[in-house]
Design goal:
The protein is mainly alpha-helical. The chain contains 28 helices and 4 strands. Helices cover 63% and strands 2% of the residues.
Length: 658
C-alpha cells in the first residue's frame, strides 16, 4: 500500500529532528510535533502545485512522497549515520526511563483512551453529517478533477470552507485508495495535542504537571468524540497547541522556532477560521514576551519594541502563506477572501449583544437543570435583549429549543457533547493562577498567567465576533486544550486539593468517564447505547448499532443516514445497472448527503464514472463545469431519485427536471 511512502517520510523526518535535538527531556515529543508540521506543510504545498497543473493523482502523489523519503534517508545517512546505531535507541529508551511511577499510570490511561479511538477509526468509515455533506465529498471532487480548483456545487461549504485538514485527508485517500485512514487525521491531531500540551506544561510549570496535563487533554469529552470523525476542530486545536508551545519555547532564542510558529499558525488558519480568533491573543502574548525579554537583556525600549515588531511581523505574515491560495480562489469566485458563506459571523455588535452570546456559550458547557432558564432570565431582566435574536443566532435557531440538560452527557455526539468538568476546572484554575500572580507578585507564574489571559481573551473574541450555535462547543475545543496546562498547575499545586485528595478523585472520575465516551460515540460505537428512547429531537435517529456488528458499507448510514440508505442503493443500482450510465449529474439541497453516493458509485463501477452538480443556482454556478452536459446520461438526487437523460439535452432542460 502506497501509504507506506508517507509513513516512511514521516518516520525519517522524526528521526532527523530527534537526533538533531539537544534537549535532555521532551525531544521525543517535540520531534513528533516538528515532523507532523513539516509533513502537513509539504502536503499543502504539493496539493497546490500539483493542482496548478491538474496532476493531483496517485502517480504524482506517490512519486512526491517517494522523493521526500529518499531525501530524508540520504540526510540521515550522510549526517546522522553514526548516531543512528549509537544514540537513537539509547536516547529513546532514556526518554521513557524518565517516567516515574505516577506518570506511567497516567500514560497508561491516556494510551487506553487513544487506542480505543484508533480501533474505531480503522473499523468505521466517516459517517457524521459534515463528513457526508462536504468534508469527504469535496475530496472526491478534487481527486476526480485532479485539482482543488472550484467547481459548481449546491453545497457551497465544499469550496469556501478552509481546506487544510481536507488536504491531509486527500493525500491519505489517494495513497490508500479509499477512506480507511480518513478519520485518522483527527485521531493524529488528538494524540499530537496531548503531546503538545504536555510540552507546554513542562515549559511553563514543571515535570509532574506535564503528565497530569496529558490526562486532562485525553479526557476532554468533545476531543474524544471528535477523534473518530473527519471534523476539523481537533486539527485546528493541534496546530494552535504547536503554535503555543513554540511561542513559549522561543524564549530560548532558537530562531528556527519562528518557522515552526508561523507554519503551525498558518496551518491552523488554513484549517478553520476560528484559528484567527484564538490565535490573535497568543500572538499578542508573543509580542509582549519579546519586549520583556529584550528589555531585560538590552535595557533599550526602542530596540525592544523594534525586535517585537520584527518577530511579530515575521510570524504573523508568514502564517498567511499557507491559507493564501484558498483565499485567492475565494476572491476570484465571489470577490471575498473568506468566501460567500458568512452565516456564522455576528451581524450586530455591542455590549448587550456580546453578553448575550457570552451567556449562551457558557450554557453549552453547563448542562444542569435551571441554567438554561437562568440565561433566559438574564436576557429578560438584565440585558433586556431577545435571546433568539436572528442576527446573533446561527440560522435563527432559538436558544430555548436546544436541549441542554444532564441527559445530553449520556449522548456522546461529536457536535453537542459538553465538557462540564473541564469547563469548571478551567475557570477555577484561571482564577487561581491570576490570584497567585497578582496577590503574591510571583514572577515565575507570569507565563501561566499570560496563557490564562490569552485563552480567556480568545473566548471573549469568539463570543463577540461569531453567532451562537448549538454546536458551538466543538468550535471552542482549542480553548480546552490551551487551558489544560493551567488546570494541571492548579491540580498539582493547590494545597487544599492535595490535602483532601481532590485532585486524585477528579482525575480518576474524568478517566472513567473518558473511557465510557471512547467506547460509545453515538454514530460509530464499539458499545451501542440504548438512547433511541430518550435522545433529544435534534439527535433523534442518530444512534448507531455497534460497529462490531455492522459491515463497513453499512456504517456510512448507521448514524444519521438511515432514512436514505435504501434510496441511495436503489438509485445507484438504477443509474449504473439499468441505465449503464457513467457520466452522472447530481442535484441536492444546499446541505445534503453526497459522499455515500461516491462510495456506492465507486464500488459499482470500479471508479469508472464522473459526477458533477447540475442546475446550480448559487454563486458557484458560473464556475467551470467538471465535464460537458452533453456527456451526462442520468441525474441522481441526494434523496435517491433518478432520471435518465439523453446526451443532447441542454443544461436548461436538466434544470427543469427538478
Amino acid at each position: 500500500m502506497a501509504i507506506v511512502l508517507l509513513i516512511t517520510a514521516f518516520v525519517s523526518a522524526f528521526v532527523i529532528f530527534f537526533l538533531s535535538n539537544t534537549d535532555k527531556e521532551g525531544k521525543f515529543r517535540a520531534s513528533i510535533l516538528k515532523a507532523l508540521i513539516l509533513q502537513s506543510c509539504l502536503i499543502a504545498v504539493s496539493i497546490e502545485v500539483l493542482s496548478s497543473i491538474s496532476a493531483l493523482d496517485f502517480a504524482h502523489i506517490a512519486l512526491f512522497w517517494f522523493l521526500i523519503s529518499i531525501v530524508n534517508l540520504v540526510v540521515l545517512w550522510l549526517r546522522y549515520r553514526s548516531l543512528i546505531n549509537r544514540d537513537l535507541v539509547k536516547s529513546i529508551v532514556a526518554e521513557f526511563k524518565l517516567l516515574k511511577q505516577f506518570s506511567r499510570r497516567y500514560i497508561a490511561i491516556v494510551t487506553t483512551i487513544v487506542v480505543i479511538s484508533l480501533v474505531i477509526c480503522l473499523i468505521a468509515p466517516p459517517n457524521n453529517f459534515d463528513s457526508m455533506t462536504y468534508h469527504m465529498s469535496r475530496v472526491m471532487h478534487w481527486i476526480q478533477n485532479r485539482s482543488v480548483e472550484y467547481y459548481p456545487t449546491h453545497i457551497t461549504r465544499q469550496i469556501y470552507m478552509p481546506p487544510g485538514a481536507s488536504y491531509i485527508v486527500a493525500h491519505f485517500q489517494i495513497l490508500a485508495g479509499g477512506d480507511l485512514f480518513a478519520t485518522s487525521v483527527q485521531w493524529l491531531a488528538f494524540v499530537g495535542s496531548i503531546l503538545g500540551v504536555s510540552l507546554i506544561t513542562k515549559e511553563l510549570i514543571g515535570d509532574r504537571a506535564q503528565w497530569v496535563s496529558m490526562l486532562i487533554c485525553a479526557t476532554i469529552p468533545m476531543a474524544i468524540a471528535q477523534s473518530t470523525t473527519t471534523q476539523t476542530d481537533l486539527v485546528t486545536s493541534f496546530w494552535l497547541v504547536c503554535f503555543t508551545y513554540f511561542l513559549f519555547k522561543f524564549q530560548q532564542h532558537d530562531r528556527s522556532d519562528l518557522f515552526w510558529m508561523a507554519a503551525s499558525l498558518g496551518l491552523a488558519i488554513a484549517t478553520k477560521p476560528t484559528a484567527v480568533v484564538f490565535g490573535f491573543p497568543l500572538l499578542v502574548v508573543f509580542a509582549f514576551l519579546i519586549v520583556g525579554d529584550s528589555l531585560q537583556r538590552t535595557q533599550n525600549l526602542s530596540l525592544s519594541l523594534s525586535n517585537s515588531f520584527k518577530y511579530f511581523s515575521l510570524v504573523g505574515l508568514g502564517s498567511l502563506i499557507l491559507p493564501m491560495p484558498s483565499w485567492m480562489r475565494n476572491f476570484r469566485a465571489v470577490g471575498d477572501f473568506f468566501g460567500a458563506d458568512q452565516t456564522t459571523r455576528s451581524q450586530i455588535y455591542g455590549l448587550s449583544e456580546f453578553l448575550s452570546n457570552f451567556f449562551k456559550n457558557l450554557a453549552l458547557n453547563v448542562p444542569i437543570p435551571g441554567f438554561t432558564q437562568l440565561v433566559v432570565g438574564i436576557h429578560e431582566h438584565l440585558l433586556r435583549a431577545n435571546i433568539n435574536e436572528p442576527r446573533l443566532n446561527f440560522a435563527a435557531i432559538p436558544f430555548d429549543t436546544v436541549m441542554m440538560s444532564p441527559i445530553t452527557l449520556l449522548i456522546p455526539s461529536e457536535d453537542n457533547i459538553a465538557n462540564p468538568l473541564h469547563f469548571i476546572l478551567g475557570i477555577l484554575a484561571c482564577l487561581n493562577v491570576l490570584y497567585v500572580f497578582f496577590r503574591r507578585n510571583d514572577g515565575k507564574h507570569l507565563k501561566v498567567c499570560l496563557l490564562s489571559i490569552a485563552t480567556f481573551s480568545g473566548f471573549l473574541l469568539f463570543c463577540y465576533l461569531l453567532k451562537w450555535q448549538p454546536w458551538g462547543n466543538r468550535l471552542m475545543l482549542p480553548l480546552f486544550f490551551l487551558q489544560a496546562p493551567i488546570v494541571a498547575h492548579y491540580l498539582t499545586t493547590s494545597s487544599i486539593l492535595q490535602k483532601f485528595r481532590v485532585s486524585q478523585v477528579v482525575l480518576s472520575f474524568a478517566s472513567i468517564v473518558a473511557v465510557f465516551y471512547a467506547l460509545t460515540p453515538i454514530r460509530h460505537p464499539l458499545i451501542a447505547l440504548p438512547t433511541q428512547q430518550w435522545s433529544p429531537t435534534y439527535l433523534g435517529g442518530h444512534q448507531s448499532a455497534s460497529i462490531l456488528l455492522l459491515k463497513r458499507d453499512d456504517i456510512y448510514y448507521s448514524g444519521s443516514g438511515k432514512a436514505v440508505k435504501s434510496l441511495h442503493h436503489n438509485a445507484v443500482d438504477t443509474v449504473v445497472g439499468q441505465y449503464q450510465c457513467r457520466r452522472i449529474g447530481f442535484f441536492s439541497g444546499q446541505d445534503e448527503w453526497e459522499y455515500p453516493i461516491w462510495v456506492l458509485l465507486n464500488k459499482k463501477t470500479s471508479n469508472d464514472f464522473r459526477l458533477k452538480h447540475i442546475a446550480v443556482q448559487n454563486e458557484s454556478k458560473n464556475l467551470k463545469s467538471e465535464f460537458p452536459d452533453s456527456e451526462m446520461c442520468a441525474i441522481l438526487t441526494s434523496q435517491g431519485k433518478t432520471l435518465q437523460v439523453k446526451p443532447e439535452q441542454t443544461s436548461s432542460e436538466n434544470q427543469s427536471s427538478r
